[in-house]
Amino acid sequence: MRTDFDAIVVGGGPAGTSFARKAAEGGMNVLVIEKKKDFGVPVRCGEGFSERWNQVLEMNVSDADLGARMKGAAVFAPNGKKIVLVNDQTTGYVLERKMFDKRLALEAGRAGATLLPKSLAIGLVKEGNKTTGLRALHEGVEKVFKAPLIVSAEGMEAKIAREAGFDCKYDPYDVDACVEYEMVGVKCEPLIALWFGNEIAPRGYAWVFPKGVDYANVGIGVGGSTGADPKKLLDDFIGNHPEFFGDATVVEVKGGVISVGAPIKKMTSDGFMVIGTAAHQVDPIHGGGIGLAIEAGLIAAKHALKAFESGDYSDAALSGYEKEWRGLEEEKLGKRLKLRHVIEKLSDDDFNHVFNETRSKDLDEVLNGHFQGLAARIVLKRPSLLKVLKVLI
Ligand SMILES: Cc1cc2nc3c(=O)[nH]c(=O)nc-3n(C[C@H](O)[C@H](O)[C@H](O)COP(=O)(O)OP(=O)(O)OC[C@H]3O[C@@H](n4cnc5c(N)ncnc54)[C@H](O)[C@@H]3O)c2cc1C
To answer: What is the Rg, in whole angstroms, of the alpha carbon atoms belonging to the chain?
Structure first.
């Protein structure tokens, strides 16, 4: 097996394999090092993927990638009030990531990338101050691979990116801790359903993402600094809703931790790029990161190809990736983070009041970062909320 490449990608999730495909299509010799023995397995995800991402990224999601198609979202207030929302951000898919991630890996392999599952990247290789490659344990045997460009697509762990000096550490306040069951026998509609409330999920939410008529991902995420136990809360949530889960049983247990904070401050350095969840490119409201990861992988590959053509892998040359990504996503994600900071200050009673004032059209506006109208209306009826909501007005 060759040991010299144009780029080495650490992590074979959606960010890493999307980068690898596009870079390989452009003529780069790319190696993807993935510690798991199969791409996409085990799954740590609710698997929701919007129609908007499907179109923007030209993913052509097909039945082979799927659990099920979604007709919209249903959002529940603590008192049970339900608002249904149908737009290109809420219609879409609940993927079968075991198939979807494998599809992305197959596409990268077909484009010419070398995939190395069951291989753990353990450290950087340096010549002086310059990073020239990576050490990896492949099936227990240490190997050295060389490349002028290392791409961290490591997800939440980001050990190699940290070793390279990137600030990928997490404050527990900026993560959600999640537990999820895949259940069969669930009574569900083809809607992404989200339940809010401090008793249900402190600083988070419960979800039901249907993968078929009687089959769904059922999960809970809680703020990492709340000290709440997501497994207990999930069991309580299921027990409190016999109308949905009375006849259901668990077929798979999943879970994990996901960033709901801001993206890292710097995403490139000489010969190094950080992409996807490793760069905290995740939506702070719902913890969705599949689309953002693929998008970052594709943008990073575009700029890596420029570096490949010019032979210049300096920070200045690679930083075009970060600039382009921030231009597309930073403002939107910043508004969502601001909204998260407001939502987490609401009591359940406040939340119920907000929902009473909210129509489906308002949620559309809020999702697109236009909070002023709704926030002003809410404050008019409950002035005590001015202190919390004024940042949105
Ligand atoms: C419980 C939960 C529910 C979620 N639900 C949704 C959802 O419904 N919709 C959505 O869009 N997003 C969701 N997300 C977020 C989504 O899963 C991630 O944002 C997405 O997978 C990010 O892709 P990535 O390629 O950046 O990282 P990952 O998919 O995390 O891939 C990183 C890969 O790197 C590998 N790796 C790490 N370190 C090393 C190493 N040293 N050597 C070799 N390999 C390494 C890992 O094994 C992994 O395969 C959820 C996350 C969690 C935890």
So the answer is: 21
